[in-house]
Amino acid sequence: MRVLTFAVIGINHDHIHGQIGALRRADATCAGFYAAEDDLAAAFMARYPEIPRVTEAARLYEDRAIDLVVSAAVPGDRAAIAITAMRHGKDVMLDKPGVTSLAQLHEVKAVQAETRRIVSIMYSEHFEVAATVRAGELVAAGAIGEVVNLIGMGPHRLRKPERPGWFFERERYGGILTDIASHQCEQFLFFTAADDAEILSASVGNRANADRPGLQDVGDMHLRTPNGVTGYIRVDWFTPDGLPTWGDGRLTIIGTQGTIELRKYVDIAGRPGKDHLFLVDRRGMQHIDCSAVELPYGRQLVADVFDRTETAMPQARCFKAMEIALKAQHLAETGRLPSASSQEAA
């Protein structure tokens, strides 16, 4: 199999490093990067001196040797990058959130259906977390029976003085549920094997950052699948400074015969490192260190590009996770779900 060649367009979020790492673990090579911001470009070149910077994104879009465009641009700009890439015959890997509005989602879905290109959103709290990958294997093997409920927690550290201006602009980052909770929406669909979910409730708020009125620092939603599996998602920007990592991401999966709890990034006051999985079943309790588990997303996506398959993530689930997050965001802000015309647009 030939080596996959990718290009980077937009490096505004540090998730770009995980995106590049996933592809490089699959032996893909980067042909170049575009960034409008000189300061971000300088830091990027210091980290990746072998990746050339181009002065115009068009050079990368028009390069026929490039198979895949990768972007962690400002969230509000990602849809346009994906559409341009697809129209140039390229597949796409976006950082989450892939889009920031239902209108953007509608347009990206329409172009994807027209071009038959791949649009993959790297929900890193699934694809870049070994404990989540291992939990998926255990659930698929029937380790806890039938899944009946999930609880997903996504606390983050704010680091307010370090954030760029767009981070506090609602229209550019999309709102806290669109942004952070899209991770948990994808995991809810994945672990329940559901094609859709009803949004029972949703809320957002700014509880501690009145000086940044565009920021939402807490949000939650309550979901239910068509067959009655429920889930609760809570995300926030309240990680205390005393925690040795950026957030204490947690996922609890309740089954008819057991439970799985993930402490993805830290076992507070306990074991060192990350990727902790706790399994409780009929035989007892066990801690599983998942740090050596392979992260298959990158190699699967590379294979999908060449084989035109959907092994890394079904295209429908990629889009549905964003749709649920966007509709929950709308409900939280307006007190109602999007209108029928808006939903048809999604």
Task: Summarize the structure in words.
The chain is α/β, with parallel strands linked by helices and 346 residues long. The protein contains 13 helices and 13 strands. Helix 1 links the parallel strand 1 and strand 2. The longest helix is centred in the last third of the chain and has 20 residues.
Proportion of beta-strand residues: 15-25%
Widest β-sheet, arrangement of strands: 7-8-9-6-10-11-12-13
Series of secondary-structure elements, N-terminal to C-terminal: EHEHHEHEHEHHEHHHEEEEEEEHHH
Distance between the termini: 36 Å
| Overall average pLDDT | 96
Give me the secondary-structure topology.
Blueprint: E1 5-11, H1 15-24, E2 29-34, H2 38-47, H3 57-61, E3 68-72, H4 78-87, E4 91-95, H5 102-115, E5 119-122, H6 124-127, H7 130-140, E6 147-155, H8 170-173, H9 176-179, H10 182-192, E7 198-205, E8 218-224, E9 230-236, E10 250-255, E11 259-263, E12 276-281, E13 284-289, H11 297-307, H12 315-334, H13 340-345
Parallel strand pairs: 1-2, 1-3, 3-4, 4-5, 6-9
Antiparallel strand pairs: 6-10, 7-8, 8-9, 10-11, 11-12, 12-13
Helix pairs in contact: 1-11, 4-5, 10-12
